[in-house]
Write a structure and sequence with these properties.
238 residues; Carbamate kinase; 9-stranded mixed β-sheet; globular
Length: 238
């Protein structure tokens, strides 16, 4: 563990990370890719917690555009995050990693209820913990859930896993001259309205001095290099 900079991490994934080329649903292949990345760092002795979104299964904005009640739409999203969490758990346990899904919305038949001290105990025992159900409340995103859980479990860093190798000053897919930003302050992210995480999540991390690292999880070595303290992706910190 001497060469590891971060001992306990919270890995935030979008729901789309599970969808593969179809951009919808759950791809078993993509789940296995994520499981392999987690396995590599878990075997290094890193304690791993995860939060995953639901965009591959449900986008509440579609319902809101048709007049759906916001609370109903958000609760549907919470349920979808638990489905994604179960898919990830299955992929990781097939890799031999003991994994627990903890849900902020009680559904004891398929997931443990979220209890902070129990979650920390699982991590201490070498289990990967996946937090489903968001915060358990409507009007809060899974970005905010990730910031909240990272703070609650006393993670060393919140890692935002994307398919881009950091934060750019403009969309690199649309602007060939977009420049990557190596480091940002929380205030910079808020003032420049950069799409790192939503403003509630950024504010929560700022108040609790929780650093955020944006990396490309599909770069095979990015996560390992980041945990070793190498300059990877974009760091948001004080």
């Amino acid at each position: 563990m001497a060469d590891i900079k971060y001992k306990r991490i919270l890995l935030k994934l979008t729901g789309e990370a599970l969808s593969g080329e179809s951009s919808f649903g759950i791809s078993v292949d993509e789940a296995e890719v994520i499981a392999n990345r987690v396995k590599e760092v878990h075997e290094m002795g890193v304690e791993v917690a995860m939060v995953i979104g639901a965009g591959n299964l449900w986008r509440g904005i579609q319902g809101l555009d048709r007049g759906m009640d916001r609370s109903t739409a958000d609760h549907m999203g919470m349920l979808a995050t638990v489905m994604n969490a179960l898919a990830l758990m299955d992929a990781m346990e097939r890799q031999g990693i003991l994994t627990r899904v903890m849900s902020a919305v009680e559904m004891r038949a398929i997931a443990e209820p979220y209890i902070r001290r129990r979650a920390i105990r699982h991590l201490e025992k070498g289990r990967v913990v996946i937090f489903g159900g968001g915060t358990g409340n409507p009007f809060f995103s899974t970005d905010t859930a990730a910031a909240l859980r990272a703070t609650e479990i006393d993670a060393d860093i919140l890692i935002k896993a994307t398919k881009v190798d950091g934060v750019y000053d403009s969309d690199p897919n649309k602007n060939a001259n977009a420049k990557k930003i190596e480091k940002l302050s929380y205030i910079d992210v808020l003032n420049r309205r950069l799409t790192v995480m939503d403003s509630t999540a950024i504010s929560l991390c700022m108040e609790n001095h929780m650093p955020i690292l944006v990396i490309n999880l599909w770069d095979r070595t990015a996560l390992i290099r980041a945990l070793q303290g190498q300059e990877v992706g974009t760091l948001v910190a004080d």
